[in-house]
Design brief:
Layout lengths: L8 H31 L3 H9 L7 H10 L1 H10 L1 H9 L3 H19 L6 H17 L5 H10 L2
Organism: Okeania hirsuta
InterPro entries: HEPN_Swt1 (IPR041650)
Pfam family, one: HEPN_Swt1
């Protein structure tokens, strides 16, 4: 009889990592589109201005980091919530904004190698899926598949 191997905490961390990468892929074009609507061609300059004090970033690597780093995406959404993002992302404004903050905490926990036991991983994956659905991102299917396969 073949038994299914129980996932380890490392397996859950791997799921979170892959899901955060997919979230980053979906968020960058979404953020760019919304910020262009608000700031026009100055959107990147505004994004850089908002993120200029982020640890480890400098002018040379900010463009590249902004394309790939989900923490920068979530910080932009959080900081620009009232002006730009609340209209798309909120069913209940404060509740939705706190979900963005929770995703930022999840990303930070992962970045600092904190363990992701099953319950925490489920919460993290559900939060990622919910945001991907809210922005109508195609990546949601991949995250849902990963979540459903983990058991």
């Amino acid at each position: 009889m073949i038994t299914k191997k129980q996932p380890s905490i490392d397996d859950y961390g791997d799921l979170i990592y892959k899901s955060l990468k997919l979230l980053a892929q979906a968020l960058y074009p979404y953020i760019e589109e919304r910020m262009r609507e608000y700031y026009s061609d100055n959107w990147l300059k505004e994004a850089k201005n908002i993120l200029k004090n982020q640890q480890g970033l400098n002018k040379r690597n900010l463009d590249e980091a902004l394309r790939k780093d989900v923490s920068l995406h979530l910080k932009l959404i959080y900081k620009l919530w009232d002006n730009i993002f609340q209209y798309d992302l909120s069913q209940e404004t404060e509740k939705s904004k706190s979900k963005v903050k929770k995703l930022l905490d999840i990303r930070n926990n992962f970045a600092h190698f904190l363990p992701f036991p099953k319950k925490k991983a489920d919460i993290a994956l559900d939060s990622i899926i919910q945001l991907l659905k809210t922005i109508n991102a195609a990546e949601v299917e991949n995250v849902e598949k990963m979540k459903n396969r983990k058991y």
